[in-house]
Amino acid sequence: MSMFCFQCQETARNSGCTVRGVCGKMDDTARLQDLLIYLSRRIAFAAEKCSDKEKLTAGRFITKALFATITNANFDNSRISELIKEGISLKTNLSATCPDSFADVIDWNMPESEYAVRAESIGVLADSNEDIRSLKQLLILGIKGISAYSHHAEVLGYEKDEIYSFIIEALASTLKQLSADKMTEYVLRAGECATTTMALLHEANSKTYGNKELTEVDLGVRSNPGILVSGHDLLDLEELLKQTEGSGVDIYTHSEMLPAHYYPAFKKYSHFAGNYGSSWWHQDKDFHSFNGAILMTTNCIIPVKDAYKDRIYTTGMAGYPGVKHVADRTSGGQKDFSEVINRAKKSAPPVELEKGKITGGFGIEQLLAVSDKVIENVKNGSIKRFVVMAGCDGRHKEREYFTQTAEALPKDAIILTAGCAKYRYIKTVKDDINGIPRIIDAGQCNDSYSLAVIALKLKEAFGLDDVNKLPLSFDIAWYEQKAVAVLLALLHLGFKGMRLGPTLPAFVSPGVLKVLVENFGIKGTTDAESDVKAMMRGE
């Protein structure tokens, strides 16, 4: 077996990719990522006993490195190898400062040509016990999601030592011989850390760009050439908007960048045109017809087609071989998007895919401002149920379930959403309940935190002692590791009885699943009609 990866929902046969990733990841790339993950664990082990300053340095590197290994983030072997070299240097310095007795299975003096080969001994299957492997992977994959959100906050100047400290402690634990109970404890603590991290990112985004507002977003196109921005990084978008003012180039969002339109700070840019296309897996169609330059700020990039390869650019932790990369900003400076802008100027305007508008931006602050109205409509029976349908979109035909569920929910049910899963229904479910939109879009996947906070505030408003007594159901679509972090956060906050689909994670063994079912009521999705009936009954 040349590779083994089961971190995403679409993993082959819901078991694991062993030849090539369903995402398009080649076996040598998978093994380099395995090596980078193991190196991050080894850095954590060394940093655990080091000073706070050294932990900060280690934490920043680990979050960056693990972000690069998230599904559909970085396919560029050269960039991953550079991260490995940076990590080896850091590990060497930490080990010199804080020596330990750990018997490493890797000779870190190896030449770069041996990276992928050496990685075969430290991959996922290095743990032979299925339940132990499952607990370790649940923890590591959750930390990947935490790392992504932490890195986003760090970029905006927001950090918390406690986040880095937990990441280091938890990753270090995966190199120790611990009981299943102790490992489970770390998994549950990861949920607490994920909650803290998403709260920090919410604070970073809100203080930098203002509280999200209910906003109509145009789906059509203008007559100017454009740049299409995908991914999640708001600072990249802000710097690009500044650098394109007065250039005659319009800026459009794609997929998870849609919620940028909800922030007040971005509304002052007249050339911020609207949203183009749909979720990440429609890139081939969307990018081909856009005509202009494309900027991938983070995951979710898919294998790049020749039709647009000469006009797509990556930045940050995103990468793809043969695609031009915009370098990181220097301290106190901005990224230089001049090449992207110049490429856009040579392009034809986008081909129009659709017309109309979609509405979103109902974040914590805005919904709480109308909470009295919401509560009144619950008490008078106008709102019978809230259904959280946050999460990720994906290619599987089974994901039509989420469209069918949204359309089958009765008119007295409110859908709470965040993440790119919304593209399955946000353009078709447009009615309201006494002025309250039936789809409340909080924003990006990290804004699932907002939905949890809203639920907890409603619990208080209704005077309930348990959030699970609310007329609230969870029907979550998951895809990659940020969704794992969100799930662990929801478990930490006390939510039970959540549906997860379209398949349960392959990295969760039957033994670990039994624990999740017995303690938290986790269940898989079935069919839309049956699940809607069950949810409306409170099941």
Distinctive features:
six-stranded parallel β-sheet; Rossmann fold; 539 residues; 3 domains; 42% helix; alpha/beta; Substrate Binding Domain Of Dnak, Chain:A, Domain 2; 17 helices
Question: Could you give a short description of this structure?
Answer:
This protein is of the alpha/beta class. Helices cover 42% and strands 11% of the residues.
Detailed description of the structure:
This protein folds into three domains: 12-208, Substrate Binding Domain Of Dnak, Chain:A, Domain 2, CATH 1.20.1270; 215-345, Rossmann fold (3-Layer(aba) Sandwich); 366-536, Rossmann fold, CATH 3.40.50.2030. It has 17 helices and 16 strands. The strands form four sheets. A six-stranded parallel β-sheet has the order 4-3-2-5-6-7. Helix content is 42%, strand content 11%. The protein is an alpha/beta fold and 539 residues long.
**Could you describe the largest sheet, including whether it forms a barrel?**
6 strands, parallel
CATH architecture of the largest domain: Up-down Bundle
Helicity, as a percent range: 40-55%
Q: Tell me, what is the CATH class of the largest domain? A: Mainly Alpha
**Could you report the average pLDDT, rounded to the nearest whole number?**
96
Q: How many distinct beta strands?
A: 16
Question: What is the fold-level CATH name, i.e. the topology of the largest domain?
Answer: Substrate Binding Domain Of Dnak, Chain:A, Domain 2
Low-confidence stretches: none
Instruction: Kindly report the oligomeric state of this protein.
Output: single chain
